[in-house]
Design brief:
Layout (H helix, E strand, L loop, with lengths): L11 H15 L4 H8 L3 H8 L7 H11 L8 H9 L7 H8 L4 E6 L10 H13 L5 H17 L7 E7 L10 H15 L4 E6 L13 E5 L5 E6 L4 E4 L2 H17 L3 H12 L4
Parallel strand pairs: 1-2, 2-3
Antiparallel strand pairs: 1-4, 4-5, 5-6
């Protein structure tokens, strides 16, 4: 049987495949043996080992179960996430992990609807646009859409987190996709505002210089009441865990909320846009 030699330094995907093969062979397992352990076909195992197929989150977790690495510092899942998040800004994958456990999530977004409130169709239009610009591959676009769904699914827990969202007016004045996509996204915003664990504000253009932030911002309150923030530019993101640096940001966020439209007025603005009125 022909055996493809692996080059683990070639890419994170190749490194994952090489580790999978090495772990399998160390146990004396064939690809059929590992396939039986993980619930996949031997063809699928071969494709991941040789880098022809990306490991999904389910695949990575199944590998951890098969090899008993789920409680170690270097899991297949963490390695798989690094591959899957290759098109995301630095710091964001780590932020997403904390976001899924947060008790309170405060966010401010400019220009686009934030991922936690996007419809799948809206997310797909944004991802497809990035592909057309050559910024990411088609596979990375699918990963971005999957990350949006994964983040939203993590919020459906008991008890759910409190989510406070402030949208710059530019988020509402920039239609994305065809009419049906944009109309459904506006409807999703109204539905979000009606949830018992959410608050929605719109920061109007007229706020002018009183607006404290010019870039997207997220602030998390964890179950132990510790704070962390995540901010990003076009090139990179930064996760801040030191509370003394996050507290001034939280204060500015409260000022932003105070100057923004009330939730009732924000929903009224969105409803007018849904009707086609400026």
């Amino acid at each position: 049987m022909n055996r493809k030699e692996l080059e683990p330094d070639g890419s994170p995907q190749a490194a994952f495949g090489a580790r999978l093969r090495k772990s399998r062979e160390a146990r004396g397992w064939t690809q059929d043996d590992l396939a039986g352990q993980m619930g996949y076909s031997s063809t699928h195992i071969s494709a991941v080992e040789t880098g022809r197929k990306l490991p999904t989150l389910r695949f990575s977790r199944s590998a951890d179960l098969a090899f008993g690495t789920g409680d170690t510092a270097d899991t297949f899942e963490s390695q798989g996430r690094q591959i899957r998040h290759g098109s995301l800004l630095e710091g964001f994958p780590e932020y997403v992990g904390h976001e899924g456990r947060a008790a309170e999530i405060r966010l401010y977004e400019v220009g686009v609807i934030p991922g936690l409130i996007q419809t799948p169709e809206y997310a797909a239009v944004l991802a497809d646009s990035a592909v057309k610009r050559g910024a990411i591959s088609a596979e990375q676009a699918q990963e971005r859409i999957a990350v949006v769904a994964e983040r939203q699914a993590a919020l459906v827990r008991n008890p759910p987190p409190l989510v406070l969202a402030v949208l710059d007016e530019s988020c509402l004045r920039r239609p994305i996709g065809k009419h049906e996509v944009w109309a459904a996204q506006l409807a999703r915003l109204v539905e979000f505002a009606e949830l018992p664990n959410t608050v929605l504000h719109v920061a109007e253009f007229s706020m002018g210089a009183r607006r404290p932030f010019n870039l997207p911002l997220y602030i998390l309150t964890m179950p132990d009441r510790s704070l962390m923030s995540y901010a990003e530019s076009a090139q990179r993101g930064h996760l801040e865990r030191d509370g003394k640096f996050v507290l001034p940001i939280l204060t500015a966020y409260h000022q932003l909320q105070a100057d923004s439209l009330s939730q009732a007025a924000s929903v009224a603005m969105i409803s007018q846009l849904r009707k086609g009125n400026p």
